Amino acid sequence: MFDSNSIIVGLEVGTSKVCAVVGEQTNEGALNIVGLGQARSTGVRKGEIIDARATEENIRAAIVEAEHMADVEIRSVYLGVSGSHVRGFNNRGVHPVVSADREITEDDVQDVVKNARTINLPADSTVLHAVRQHFLVDGHDGVTNPVGMLGGRLEVDVHVVHGNLNRLQNAIRVVKGIQLDVEEVVFNGLAASLALLTPEQKELGCVVMDIGAGTTDYVVYVDGVIRHTGVLAVGGDHVSNDLSRGLRVPLSRAEQLKIEHGSAFLDDAARGQEITINNSLGFPERTISLENLRRIMALRLEEMFELVAQDIEEANLTDYLRGGAFLCGGAARIPRIAELAEDALQMPVSLGKSNSISGLKSALDQPEFAAAIGLVKFGSLKARRQQTGPSILGTVKKFLKR
Amino acid sequence: METPAIPTPEPAPAPARCSLKIIGTGTAGVALLAQLRAGEFLAAQFVAVDSITIAPGEIEKIEIAKSLLGGRGSHCSEPGKVEIEGQFNAVKAACADCDTVFILAGLGGRTGSWMSAAVARAAKEAGAQVFAFVTLPFDCEGSVRFSQARQALDRLKAHCDFLFIQPHQDFCAQHAESLSLTEVYAPSNRRLLAAVRHVATALTGSTIMGIGFSDLCAMLRDRGAQVMFAVAGSDGANRAGAVIEELLAHPRLNAGKLLAGAETVAVSLVGAQDLRMADVNKVMSELGNHWQNTSHLLSASVGAAAQGPLGALLLIVTQEAAQTASRLTAPAGGAKEISESSTFATHYLPDETKSPPRFSTAAGESTPPSAPRMRGSRTRKESPRLRQGQFDLDTINKGRFEKSEPTIHKGEDLDVPTFIRRGVVLN
Fold it and tell me: Do B400 and A299 touch (CB under 8 A)?
């Protein structure tokens, strides 16, 4: 049994699955994944809870499985959230340095960040994250840590991620309903990027796309800091729904066909080919066109990437993404999706892997667990900050902002 | 006794085949017909089909008994009631000797809504090419008339080669302050009749550049939905400039911004023998400044006259316009929308203008591009300017997302399958 103080649990309540990942923080600060539990999600649509009771049961099942595997008792979790209501934008905060010697202190930094968070959000929205990008001292740009510098005016650019308060509260209430504490609510896209990216990749500039069943969350890093986030409420479920409609098969069969015969590319080999599908007794029921199946999938996925590319373009960040794009989430398993994404995004694309964390190989290699693993990493960073006290706060935040 | 030889009478010469017949149905349709006739548009024969034929004397009349339409106030009477064989055959006989039939009607009312489809069917069965020019009610006229109009469009669509739809609401904002209630129909009627004249000229003239107008319409008909149109005409030295100015003044074009977001723009230019390449170049280059990368097609035709005005007709296919218009005009009851499949881009346009380029589509099948939307379900602030109306053919079932919050991105409902929205026809 692990020391419960060193246990960090990430809980992702997704559209297709609920996933709980248990991590152990070693004394040396390393993070080790020791448990994983998952359950089919039946109460979530497009990343948002539509059936609290069903979701509660799903979470309970996933937590129990994770507890058994890790041999721990889970008391609190870092909760991952997504949904079309989650949005991000950049904001600047200003703070005058009033001390006599004009030396910028940690308090000044805290104040300017607080000012940057104070923005006119809709009444029903709340700030999830305010991630520091860089400081300006007396208008001088590009300062990463102003503490100790002299100046009269301190400014900071932050990336603010916010969401609808009620919808976020719904998720929190469901988790609390099964006697679990929520340590913090974290945007899934941010969590996935923490799991997948190295500091070098963030420095190069890249985008992480977590393509789940209900939503596609993406986070753009430029020069080591988050510059843009977004949620597209389109995911693998839309692919299945398109297949169901286009091939005239039930949704469950469409889902099965997607997994067994799907591909992001319509290649020549698929043209003219047919797939025979059997009925419940195992007898051939009908045939469907493989070409149509793949065409439908390719169209939806291509559109998804195009919309993300368009959003990044509108943020004027495309030219800064020298590190390319990293895909994760369940839809990243679709064969040849990286090729399609390369075409649509016009940049190198690869499947993301949680390289910077050790532990369960079965979890770390799976793209669909990236967000949950990232939640654990987020928790470990926060725990380290709490353990080391306020003087390390800046370091942790610096890490977080990556 | 020899019987005197009886001289064999010479066979009577067959009546000359009329190239164009224009049929007005209902009160609004007949009024449009009368305006057209009064404007000395002589290149056609005119027929009025109405329950009360008060058309001018030189217009052929086919009277519909009021009883067949169920009497006054019977807005919901079934179309079958008016398609009584006698009336139907009369219309069919009237169309038997012509190549092209234009139908003018105001939809939303009684006779026009029910009879226009019957007339279209009769004309089609008589072997004519059928174009319908119809108006839609004002927004303030209520959901019943909208529902009636949309159902009429649905019926009409099945028998027409191309539909030109002019909602009265289009010019309401521009003229509401200055016009009296009796004059408020005039701006949209004027545009619709200008389109009639343009299409008649384009069909009867010789296509010199680009593709023929009939082919253009056939392509756009396959492209789907009713296509937005804007029409303009001008004479004089700077006629191309004036035409552009008039086109861009159309409220739905939003000073040309709509062209930039359009999927396809077809330009039909008509003129007399004095139509110059400079005119064509100027119109196309000026429009090109607005549409940028939008796929476009040109049809330039000239008539027999030595001199005449330059006329331009824009046919614009844009998904956003369809959805905006659908939002603007959808009845409260959620009446069925209409549209067709898209094979236009893949078959007729250069590869670089298509999206997506990777896939080919097959012709012939029809797919509905967008989901129905309830009137008033979106806030009005999203549509500051009125846009072109397009109507989808079938109701889209969004499957598992039917009851979930729609994912709207730039006016497009992403819950609707991509292959449907992009008009890709599955084999």
Answer: no
